[in-house]
Each structure stands twice: as structure tokens, then as C-alpha cells.
Specification:
Blueprint (H helix, E strand, L loop, with lengths): L2 H7 L7 E2 L6 E4 L3 E4 L2 H45 L5 H30 L4 H4 L7 H33 L1 E3 L10 H31 L4 H14 L7 H18 L2 H23 L4 H28 L16 H9 L2 H15 L2 E3 L1
Antiparallel strand pairs: 1-2, 2-3, 4-5
Length: 358
């Protein structure tokens, strides 16, 4: 056992005296004064947390894999129970509600258990402070404008990739129903449910559990995981950037409600834009699309200027006192965790399944 291990294994009484939290040496009755390797201690803590987070990510992946079969089983069971006596519309609504509950549970349950395993207080795992309305609204405009611009750039790049190489990067889409009930269900699925569940997990439990190392590290990792759960690799750039922006505003306001509002606002704009394009034909659809983007860009720029005038430290996050490693070193250390690396690799491979040749 080396000096560091003796120091870490000893109880506080055995160590007799520690020369402050930032001291380079501590006293042990067994070894006298010992040099503390704080960088090594931080790396080990990151690795341990990475192992735990990676295991729960793998549990989530397993649940997601079996959720499709569970949904099919529910539909078959519902058909047998109905026996042809239940209207098709009612069966559809019940199936859709079950699907939303199922997908929400698949995402929420593993990471709520993860928070319980880490013994995170609820107020820490899910910060419920009342958000600053002005900062939240301005943040929503900035996030939406930047995300739509990135999405447009990715769309142009994937189009060029298909034309030059024959490689198609597909994006799964959901067709909005014209019936009011179906349309409401689609709004719940595309706007409300993701804004609540994904924020609870990524800007809530995951990001807050990583803040013990630094805010930038927590923001980077949670945004990366948020991007990786999206089904197509074409979603990766704008999901990561929107995750970074949403996470930043959650950190600034100290409220998960900020993330839910920004996330829901962006998703709602996406749905409304799809509705607009569906009801406008021909060249007018292109004009309408770029008109909306230009308007969003103007609003986002105005919001950014307003934020810069009101906040001198815009996009500056405090580095945790006592952090020994840089953000990049922390991130590389996390990737050395086998369960975490395996989970991220599996998520990436799932995204690549949407890439194919014409």
C-alpha cells in the first residue's frame, strides 16, 4: 500500500490532522506527513462515477430495446380485450397514451434509480427554483434560432453528401394527424413529454450529478448524452448545441423549469413550422421556410444583444473551487470508464443505423 492509499483508507481520527482542504500534505500516525495526489483522487472519483453512470445508461438501452415488444404486446392484448366492440379511435388513443407512458418510464426510471443510488437529494437532482422569466424567454429565442440554423446547415450537408456519394442520412419523422384528438396526442408526444422527461434526466439528474467536478464538465457530458439518445446521426449536431445552450440557461437560472420551457418552445416551433410547410405548396413553401428562419435569426440576435447588455459575464460559468483537472482532462478521464464508453459507443452505433447507401 502506497502513501496515497494509506491516506485515503485511514479514518479521520487516524489521520489526526489535515492541513486544510487545499493542503498538499496531510499527517498520518502510520506514515507521518504524506503528499496528497489530488489529481489522482479526482480522476478516480470521475472514473467511479463514470462506471455507475455507464451502467445505468446500459440499463436504459436494454429497456429501450424491449419497449418496442412491450408496446406490440399491449396492442395485441387491447385488441383481444376489445373483441371488436371498442371503437378504433379509442383503441388508438389508449395505445398512444400507453406508448407515451412507456417511453417516459424507460427514460425516467433508470436515472431516478441512478440518483437514488448516488443519494442525491431531490432538490439537488431536480432544481426547482423559480426561474427568471426574462432570462428564460431570451434564452429560448437564442436557443431556437441557433438550433434551427444548425439544423439547416446539417440538412444542406446531408443533401450534398447524398448527391456526391450516394450516402443517405435519414431522419425519422412523425406525421401530424389532422383530427383534433390525434393532433393533441402528437403535440403531447413531440412537445410536452420530451420537454419534461428529457430535462428531468439530462439537465436534472445527470448534469447535476456531474457538477461536483465542474459546471463546464457537467454541461459537456450531459449535452453529449442528450445528443446521443436522438435516433439519427443527422440530429447529433443541433441536439448537442441545443443541449449546451439549454443546460447553460438552466445553470444560470438554477431551475429545471427553464430547460423545460426552452425545450418545449423549440419543439413547438418545429411542429408549427412543419404545419406551415404542409399547408403551403410549391415554391411558397421554400419562401415560408426561409422567411421563418430569417425571423428567428433576427429575434435570436436581438435576444443575444439584450443578454450581452444585461449580463457582463454572459456564457461564463464558475469553475469549481478545488478542481484539479481541466475540463478536457476530466472528459478524457470519463471516457476511460469501460461501462460509460460502451454505453456511448452503443448509442452511436444505434444512430448510425439510419445511414445507408442509395
Amino acid at each position: 500500500m502506497d502513501e496515497q492509499e494509506i491516506f485515503e483508507s485511514g479514518s479521520r481520527n487516524e489521520r489526526d490532522m489535515v492541513l486544510g482542504d487545499d493542503a498538499d500534505y496531510a499527517f498520518s500516525p502510520q506514515m507521518g506527513f504524506l503528499k496528497i495526489d489530488r489529481q489522482r483522487m479526482e480522476r478516480e472519483r470521475i472514473m467511479r462515477l463514470g462506471d455507475v453512470l455507464g451502467m445505468f445508461l446500459l440499463v436504459y438501452l436494454l429497456l429501450r430495446m424491449f419497449s418496442g415488444g412491450s408496446f406490440q404486446l399491449f396492442q395485441n392484448l387491447l385488441s383481444r380485450i376489445a373483441g371488436g366492440n371498442m371503437p378504433a379511435e379509442v383503441q388508438y388513443v389508449l395505445s398512444w397514451l400507453f406508448y407515451m407512458v412507456l417511453t417516459s418510464g424507460v427514460l425516467l426510471i433508470p436515472f431516478f434509480v441512478y440518483a437514488a443510488y448516488l443519494r442525491m437529494p431531490a432538490r439537488v437532482a431536480v432544481p426547482l427554483r423559480r426561474p427568471r422569466i426574462s432570462l428564460t424567454v431570451l434564452g429560448a429565442l437564442v436557443t431556437a434560432s441557433v438550433s434551427f440554423m444548425v439544423s439547416l446547415a446539417v440538412s444542406l450537408m446531408t443533401g450534398a453528401l447524398k448527391q456526391w456519394t450516394g450516402v443517405v442520412v435519414s431522419i425519422p419523422s412523425v406525421t401530424l394527424g389532422s383530427d383534433p384528438v390525434y393532433f393533441l396526442l402528437h403535440i403531447l408526444q413531440l412537445v410536452v413529454v420530451p420537454a419534461v422527461t428529457e430535462e428531468l434526466v439530462f439537465r436534472g439528474v445527470i448534469m447535476q450529478s456531474l457538477r461536483q467536478f465542474s459546471d463546464w464538465f457537467a454541461l459537456l457530458v450531459s449535452s453529449m448524452l442528450f445528443a446521443l439518445i436522438h435516433p439519427s446521426v443527422a440530429n447529433l449536431p443541433h441536439a448537442f448545441i441545443s443541449g449546451m445552450l439549454i443546460g447553460y440557461f438552466v445553470l444560470r437560472t438554477g431551475s429545471i423549469f427553464t430547460g423545460m420551457f426552452i425545450h418545449g418552445f423549440y419543439n413547438l416551433l418545429s411542429v408549427l413550422l412543419e404545419l406551415l410547410l404542409r399547408n403551403v405548396s410549391g415554391s411558397l413553401s421554400t419562401v415560408a421556410y426561409f422567411g421563418v428562419l430569417v425571423l428567428l435569426m433576427i429575434l435570436g440576435l436581438a435576444a443575444l444583444v439584450t443578454l450581452a447588455k444585461n449580463y457582463d459575464d454572459l456564457f461564463v460559468l464558475n469553475r469549481r473551487k478545488g478542481a484539479q483537472l481541466s475540463t478536457s482532462a476530466q472528459f478524457l478521464t470519463l471516457l476511460k470508464s469501460p461501462p460509460f464508453f460502451l454505453a456511448c459507443g452503443t448509442l452511436l452505433c444505434t444512430m448510425l443505423s439510419y445511414v445507408h447507401l442509395v
